Amino acid sequence: MNKKTLIAAAVAMLGTAPAWASSATVYGLTLDLDNHFSAGGAWRMQSRDMRLVGIGNGGSAYSTNNDDGDLAFDRGDMVSAAAKLTSDLTISRGAFGLFVRGSYLYNQKLRDYDFFNINNYYATASSSTLGVGLTPTGRASVAPVSEYHAKNRAVGNFVGNDADLLDAYLYGSVDIGRQSLTFKLGRQVLNWGESTLVQNGINSLLAFDANQLRVPGYEISEVITPQNMIWLSTSLSSRVAVEGFYEFDWQRTQPDAPGTFWSTNDFAGVGGTRAFITFGLPPENTPNTTIPRGADHKPGNSGQFGGKISIQIPALNDMDLSFYAMQYHSRLPLVSGVSKSSYASTSETGLYFLEYPKDIQLYGVSFNTTLGDWSAQGEYSYKPNQPLQVDDVELLLAGVGLPSQVTPPPAAPLGSALGNKYIRGYRRHEVSQVDTSFTRLFGPMRYLGSDQLLFVAEAAADYVHDLPPTSELRYDAPGTYTPGSASVAALVSSATLPIFGRSVPQQQRGYATAFSWGYKLIARLTYNNLIGPVRIEPALRFDHDVHGVTPTPMGNFVEGRKMANVSVTGYYQQAWSLQLGYSNYFGGGQANLLSDRDYLEAALKYVF
């Protein structure tokens, strides 16, 4: 990565203090130890919007599958109180070495928190054969209180008391003729492409833990999950270089755990055990309204590899032009299911599970160069077989024997999907993504009194080449909770009206679209020695999803959705830093599931 890319990459780590490493030499080996300690908290600053809460939970949304995180914290509540230590150890001799990174997190707020509502669970079953009991409020439930405790423990352990081995690889360089071959072997992060702030392009190889992203004072190295692989790089000439990798294991992206403050899915992450199918009308765990979770369908470890060739073009301001080809397994989950046994059987005889489709191909090209005082980067990627999530309502309808767009063609009789049949929740499509960004470091700004200004602008777009019309097949997006067919909505309402006293409306808009785009802006000022040896860096970030809705699981853009973050970080003696920040989510209507979760955070960091 050359100096042009380094400027943009540094933006992802705004507020990161320089590191001091401890070094020693033992028996000819050089040991370098670098530690990052942080402690901080975050607080909810906005009242709950009941339009985002399911009807059965006291709101007006037609789903109770997305609101656990919203219900778990009130305005003013602390939503995180974390301390974290991340240590990097390098042992080297000459051109060879070992790099190991480990991290430990303790979140006092979340370790033993009650993320879920105990009034949705029963203590003693009224019938051991039916598995149904009465909750503390006297209503029927299919979920025992042991499930409640198990869910809380799973989430609390995952986000509140977590030790991780991150990177752990051998590296080195050997001469081959006039060229050298550089290698890394072991757990490592391979971040190809030129996107800085947008995912699902050439950087689709990366797996993330969204829960680490929510830790006040996080480092980007703690968010990306390393994977076991061998990586090789060599030069073919002074202006041409090649790289290649082969992965030995597969790692998934972890969504926000259900019940945590930023979570918007209650069944897919750690602690998710049931999906609720009656359009949000009854309270959670009401009999015959839930589908239990089955085992995840993982893709295996083999069959992931790729290559890259980079060319430097002096005539174009030393432009770096790179070409990519790779095959990998999905890091992002897709939801599929098994239908219930029969019309007479309960919904609990069905299943939902997460799938991670195999053998996704990606081809791409990227560039970075300079245009005057600006650094310019961009990339284009094409995936001929990207899995996209079918609207989950269509899966639900098929699973309980109602008319659905995923019912076997050409005109399957009603209930043809019943009998514990597999219902695939995704289809593969051709997807392109384009991304471009511009970065500039300005010198002293007299009218702002600053020593430096960093500015970054990045825009990206997604296009599904062969997305069918919604009349043929609807694809999932945030906030699409009810049937897209008027006749099916009427059929469902004929059943819900007598039982729950409410009809279910037709979902007329909000589905994934073929084209979507948005942009992100970052500005950061630097004031050196503003207060004695203290350096102050205020920063502003603004994200805007302008048009269209990117299909799940990519989810890059939701039309109208916006986010603004303002922060200020102070640095003292190159080792201490204190960061304060406020984030505001707005726009996008009810498709923006975080629009009522503004938060304030503070973090103290020390590097040694």
Distance between the termini: 26 Å
Radius of gyration: 26 Å
What is the overall shape?
A: globular
Examine the secondary-structure arrangement and name the CATH architecture.
Beta Barrel
Q: Say which CATH homologous superfamily is assigned.
A: Porin
Domain tally: 1
CATH first level: Mainly Beta
Descriptive notes:
This protein has seven helices and 29 strands. With about 600 residues, the protein is mainly β. It has one domain: Beta Barrel (Porin). The chain has an 18-stranded antiparallel β-barrel. Strands 5-6-7 form a three-stranded antiparallel β-sheet, with no helix packed on it. Strand 3 and strand 4 form a beta hairpin. The radius of gyration is 26 Å and the shape is globular. The N terminus is likely disordered.
List keywords for this structure.
mainly beta, Porin, 18-stranded antiparallel β-barrel, 7 helices
Record the SSE blueprint.
Elements: H1 3-11, E1 21-26, E2 29-44, H2 68-72, E3 78-93, E4 96-107, E5 125-127, E6 132-134, E7 140-141, H3 145-160, E8 161-176, E9 179-188, E10 207-208, H4 210-213, H5 220-223, E11 224-225, E12 227-235, E13 240-247, E14 274-276, E15 290-292, E16 305-313, E17 319-328, E18 334-338, E19 351-355, E20 360-371, E21 374-389, H6 392-399, E22 422-423, E23 426-442, E24 452-464, H7 486-500, E25 515-531, E26 534-547, E27 562-572, E28 576-586, E29 599-607
Antiparallel strand pairs: 1-2, 2-3, 2-29, 3-4, 4-8, 5-6, 6-7, 8-9, 9-12, 10-11, 12-13, 13-16, 14-15, 16-17, 17-20, 18-19, 18-22, 20-21, 21-23, 23-24, 24-25, 25-26, 26-27, 27-28, 28-29
